[in-house]
Fold MBL fold metallo-hydrolase.
Amino acid sequence: MSDLHLLTIEIENGGQRQSIAPVLLQDERDVVLVDCGYPDSMEKLEAAAGRYGLSLGSITKLIVTHHDLDHIGSLAALKEAYPHIAVIAHEREVPYVQGIKRSLRLQQAESTLADLPDELKPGAEQFIRSLASVEPAVVDQIVSHGEKLPWCGGIEVVHTPGHMPGHISLYLPGSKTLIAGDAVVYENGQLDIANPHFALDLKEAVRSVQRLLAYDIEQIVCYHGGWFRGDVQKELCRLIDSYQERSGEAR
């Protein structure tokens, strides 16, 4: 038997307030954190975990859905404070998490800076500095698509590239729940692609959503937007169709 807790925290990013939802999975042996917020999020994560009678020190494993500022910003600090936490990431994300390769998001931001209007450049430059400041962390376990992790009732790794090449979602068969990361977001009462204009490969991101139709999903946890508990299959099909119509493709 395992429990799923949303560590919903409010943050300010670029002068705007937003909410993100790292996830804690808990059973008799393990406490598994999925993603860990922006840099300097540890105090807010600790407070959110405390609402469920847990602490960051009780975490045994930390699964990284992908290398992006708002998902791994506090990873190095968490690992330094609690070195017993085992960090898990997809094989294609490991070089970026460990700092062996430069962040793809950083490369993307740098490559588009010159084309921005002058009034937007200061904000973009600040974003670039934030991306560059993210500290690397050692990955203790590398996973791949279809791998079944034995913790918290069973966790299946679902490779959902597009937003990032090594992006993963997590399927919990016991509760028919998908922890989506940024494979999809829940905004304005419906599911959507996360920041489609900034997806590294938008067509691949849509194909990843299509792959989710193979899973018996009754509810989705979105990092941006929290719970979606409607007709998951119908909503995923609507999302896929909306993007394929724009591109002239057929599902």
About this structure: The mean pLDDT is 93. The helical segments are 42-50, 69-72, 75-81, 94-97, 104-112, 121-132, 202-211, 232-247. The domain at 3-247 is CATH 3.60.15.10 (Metallo-beta-lactamase; Chain A).
